[in-house]
Amino acid sequence: MDRLVTNNHLVFCVIGAGNVGKAMSAYLAARGYRVHLYNRGKERIANISNGILLAQGSLRRSIRLEMVTTDLRKAVEGSDIIIVTITSLGHEELMKNLVPYLVPSQIVVLHPGRVGGALLFKKILSKNNVSNITVIELETSIFAARAENTHVRIMGIKRRVHGACLPALQTDRVVSILTGALPQIVSSPNVLYTGLMNYGMILHPAPLLFNAARVDLSHVRFRHYIDGITPSIADFLERMDKERIAVGKALDIKLMSTSQWLSEVYGSNGTNLYEILQNTSPYHSIYAPNTLRHRYIMEDVPNALVPISELASVLKIDTPLINLVIDMCSSLLKCDFRKTGRTLNKLGIANMTKKEIFQYINS
Asked: Model confidence over 206-240: pLDDT tens digits?
């Protein structure tokens, strides 16, 4: 498509009308792009069937979307860029449903991919003999946002978010197309980098696990990052983070610590993770979930910690704290996350050597 090269008149299909989907739709439409917003069920879009979103926070205006629909075919048709904002728990089912409607040269953005999102999509595309579709996954969401009915409040927009394509050789071309609309996206070496750079796996499950009593008492409201991460918990997270970084080092990938990342994307300051979180203003209004069966555990454990743990095992890297969080969450919620999660087999890279994995993701 010529317009993919020139960046003019791009049409975006945003999949998922949750917090991030509505934030993404409002942001793109406010920048003058045509936006199709799709949601599988009617509940989240019933009040915006006329296409009007009321943005608050970083955007303060009424925004019109070109289309709001529960018809996936209709939403995808005529779109150049498809941005998937649903949780990674729904990726596999969505990918299978999406395949029949994809046309050559479309770009699919996993926002974010968690660990292995693009690998999973590649496996599904290959199984269905679909080619000439480029998949790029982002390390994390660009937005910190909350949405309800017709309103979406964007509390923070990250300065930089890394993205990588599968195959990696497509990354610079695709990032150059996307940055006209989403200037926050920067190229990263490959999808292993973006997977390992997903900091939700550090900041979400363990703090929720340590605050299980408060979460179970659903009438007790507390801010997840500010009240739920105490100095002791932050110290645990920093040690857990070192395990993630060690896995990256074994793959010849230099990763930022969670503290460094927060400083880069939000401009937060402090001498340790606890202080930096306390000084991250967008986190001051984000409250903890009122259930343990929330994506902070149900998504980040099976689709981030589990594949990291499996990679670590292959690379002979010890990850006792990551394994502890996986096993404690599995026991507490009576879910076998090691079975249901994104294993290396599900991602199509089981039994590969380090060299073979890099050949697979780069070519």
From this structure: 999 999 999 998 778 999 999 999 999 999 999 99
pLDDT given for residue 220 in this prediction: 83
CA 271 to chain centre: 27
The angle that helices 306-315 and 231-250 make with each other, rounded to 10 degrees, is 50
Catalytic annotation, residues:
204, 300
**Residue range 184-198, pLDDT digits in tens:** 999 999 999 999 999
d(CA 346, CA 336): 15
CATH code where residue 105 lies: 3.40.50.720
| Position 358 in a domain | no
46 with 163, same domain: the answer is yes
Type of residue numbered 143:
F
* Structural domain span for residue 32: 2-190
Q: Are residues 6 and 140 in the same domain?
A: yes
Average pLDDT over residues 28-53: 90
- Say if residue 121 is in the same domain as residue 239: no
